[in-house]
């Protein structure tokens, strides 16, 4: 199928951010490609790219401009040929990619659930009134305050290691991390309890790794097809259509999860006010091939139920 595979002299350049999780994801991508084509690891180079989001770690993400901050420099390298593929956590990716790029290869999805992390407790119910919770995720913050308005949420930025250090230092009683990241980094020693999606619906695409390429790069497209996971693609098609219709920005707390059962797909979605005061959730079931339509349909329902103004908070005065 593929005539000119990469070689140690002309390696395929894999672009990634430099966080331990990003590197683990890039390594997994290299391993899968090497195995699929029986190539040595030297046929791949991992190129670490520092993004604006990595550089500015002392301010909340929402202040410095949101999601594209972690991808812009990487996508520029891809477009200019500095790298051949870029490996991303799909939950950090906007629904639309720049012209000339394609993002439709997904590795098999990891555990989609959030984990409750605390040295002293095993779940939210155990937290005393007023307990301090650290998270930088607007979704987790809103979901938490929706259930427990008595808790205090403090901003917890930085990579997973930085956040765990803050927890150790006693800055908060607990934090939340994706099970997927903990599993991919084999951080078995972290005191964690997986939270059922019924109790905390995960972010759209949580646990999925996506691989981006230039749209006109046919050799790379053929190589990536060999490691693509179809079921993950079907689930993300529904979840990302849900997100696209909601026009989710980094500032809007949105959760969504699609699961497959035989030929059917079941999609759950939730939108919340950032302070947790109101939440709207719903679900759809249908044939897998209708996933994207179900995603936009569910989003329309939630938009209607939420009513005008629900998503306007970011431009108004009631920002929390
Ligand atoms: N926004 C940061 C981010 N992006 C992806 C993951 C975890 C891995 C995944 O969900 O695929 C994380 C950290 C976290 O939420 O704990």
What would you say this structure looks like, in words?
The protein has 3 domains: 12-109 and 208-228, Periplasmic binding protein-like II (D-Maltodextrin-Binding Protein, domain 2, 3-Layer(aba) Sandwich); 114-194, D-Maltodextrin-Binding Protein, domain 2 (3-Layer(aba) Sandwich), CATH 3.40.190.10; 239-315, Porphobilinogen deaminase, C-terminal domain (Double Stranded RNA Binding Domain, 2-Layer Sandwich). 32% of the residues lie in helices and 22% in strands. It has helices spanning 20-37, 52-55, 61-64, 72-80, 138-147, 160-168, 179-184, 218-225, 230-246, 291-306, and strands at residues 12-16, 44-48, 85-89, 101-106, 114-117, 132-134, 152-154, 174-178, 192-194, 209-214, 254-261, 264-272, 279-287. Strands 2-1-3-10-4 form a 5-stranded mixed sheet, sandwiched between helices. Helix 9 packs parallel to helix 10 (291-306). The site of ligand PBG has 10 residues, from strand 8 and helix 7. Ligand PBG is lined by residues 89, 91-92, 160, 177-178, 180-181, 206-207.
What are the main properties of this structure?
320 residues, alpha/beta, D-Maltodextrin-Binding Protein, domain 2, Double Stranded RNA Binding Domain, 3 domains, five-stranded mixed β-sheet, 10 helices, disordered C terminus, binds the ligand NCc1[nH]cc(CCC(=O)O)c1CC(=O)O, EC 2.5.1.61, HemC, Porphobilinogen_deaminase_C, Porphobilinogen deaminase, transferase
